[in-house]
Automatic annotation (TrEMBL):
Native species: Psychrobacillus lasiicapitis
The protein, known as: Amidohydrolase family protein
InterPro entries: Amidohydro_3, Metal-dep_hydrolase_composite, Metal_Hydrolase, Metallo-hydrolase_Enzymes
Domain of life assignment: Bacteria
PANTHER family named among the record's database cross-references: BLL3847 PROTEIN, CYTOSINE DEAMINASE
Keywords, ordered alphabetically: Hydrolase, Metal-binding
Keyword Hydrolase: yes
Pfam family membership, one: Amidohydro_3
Length: 412
């Protein structure tokens, strides 16, 4: 469909503010023209009678989601149930498991990745950043399968692929493999725990930034280290970001230390991240201190949510449901008012919300990409707080219709 109308669709237009207190979100029913993957018109007038039309029946239109931290290349999803084994040696238990698990999974990587992509799209994600294992066990084979799986959904989604040396860039001698990955479809250079895993903060980070410079690519570094050790590495990343001219091109995934810091250390680290345009992704963990997501955003450090895992040998948990994730975020930080709830959308959409905090219309507008969701809710705040179901997903103007993913051979 290149040119059609969504009719009777609900959009937000402002906040009702009796006595300067927001009581509810104001909405109206409109008709929206979609043309060549973009929004061409937003009007209360009836479309031309000869137009192709899809009746939204009063469903709420909200921006599509961006899944900013997932591993689609190593998952049990689509296969039989497996819980995880106890980690007796932290992250190294899982790395040791991967010596066998990754080889066993190779025949099913692409099909399971497709199944996970279907789940993510069904849950409203039209942009996906996936981390892909690059290591001596599988080389770049997982990357090949990941690229193939993502290409199957290019009519609906945009995507990024992080060349991720899960076993340690230096520890597993994966530097040349990461270079190969960057030449074969990866878009971002990854890294993991320069201190705990690579045991050489300076060399590990300098190598990541060197590869990124070689391929003119952004960076996404997993950082699980806590407290002052994690904070020190963030400061080192910030300094390298500035020195290399990579402002605005670096992500720190997890950044768990931010959940451990208190003032004034938290403010110092936050300011350093903001100064060089480093953003953060988080799964909103509840099994440890959660990073201060609202505080970071308010201090100019963009934060995005991701799911990381949807059942694998690292974790049996994960739903791919970002509405549920945002509701959890709201509960964790005691956000329950109308504006606060509606603004939670920004953590799943790359900062896009229908209304600004002051109630000004920001989305949808003519020229915007036609990637959006139709939800059974009266407003964004209700959609999140009540975990309302998604009725339809549109990516690049195309409606998502689940494909038949081949079942044969998808087993453990």
């Amino acid at each position: 469909m290149n040119n059609y109308w969504i009719t009777n669709v609900r959009i937000e237009k402002g906040y009702e503010k009796p006595e300067n207190t927001v009581a509810k979100t104001l909405t109206e029913l409109v008709n929206i023209q979609i043309e060549k993957g973009r929004i061409a018109n937003v009007t209360t007038e009836a479309p031309p009678s000869e137009s192709e039309m899809i009746d939204a029946n009063g469903a709420l239109m909200i921006p599509a989601f961006r899944e900013m931290h997932i591993h689609i290349d190593k998952t049990y999803y689509g296969g039989p149930w497996k819980a995880v084994r106890p980690a007796t040696n932290g992250i190294f238990t899982r790395i040791e498991e991967e010596q066998k698990v990754l080889k066993d999974q190779l025949p099913t990587v692409e099909e399971r990745a497709k199944k996970m992509l279907e789940l993510l799209i069904q849950n409203g994600h039209t942009h996906i950043r996936t981390h892909c294992n690059i290591d001596p066990v599988v080389g770049i084979e997982n990357l090949k399968a990941t690229v193939s799986a993502l290409k199957a959904y290019e009519d609906l989604i945009t995507y990024e692929i992080v060349a991720f040396p899960q076993h340690g860039l230096l520890r597993s001698d994966s530097v040349e493999l990461v270079r190969q990955a960057m030449a074969n479809g990866a878009t971002h250079v990854g890294g993991v725990d320069p201190a705990t895993v690579d045991r050489n903060i300076e060399k590990s980070l300098e190598t990541v930034f060197s590869i990124a410079q070689e391929f003119d690519a952004p960076i996404d570094i997993h950082l699980h280290d806590s407290d002052s050790l994690g904070a020190f590495q963030m400061e080192q990343i910030a300094e390298l970001t500035e020195a290399s001219g990579n402002q605005g091109k670096v992500t720190i995934s997890h950044a768990l230390a931010l959940g451990d810091l208190v003032e004034p250390r938290l403010q110092t680290v936050t300011e350093k991240l903001a100064e060089v345009g480093i953003d953060v992704t988080t799964t909103v963990p509840v099994n440890r201190p959660t990073i201060p997501i609202p505080y970071l955003w308010e201090n100019n450090v963009p934060v995005s949510v991701g799911h990381d895992s949807i059942t694998d040998h690292w974790s049996p948990f994960g739903t791919g449901d970002s509405i549920q994730k945002l509701a959890l975020l709201g509960e964790r930080f005691r956000i329950s008012d109308e504006i606060g709830l509606s603004q939670l959308l920004r953590f799943a959409t790359g900062g896009v919300t229908p209304l600004s905090p002051t109630g000004d219309l920001q989305w949808p507008k003519v020229g915007d990409d036609a990637s959006f969701l139709l939800v059974d809710a009266t407003c964004s705040a209700e959609a999140i707080a009540r975990r309302k179901p998604i009725r339809a997903v549109y990516g690049k103007g195309n409606i998502f219709v689940p494909k038949q993913v081949v079942e044969e051979g998808v087993h453990s």
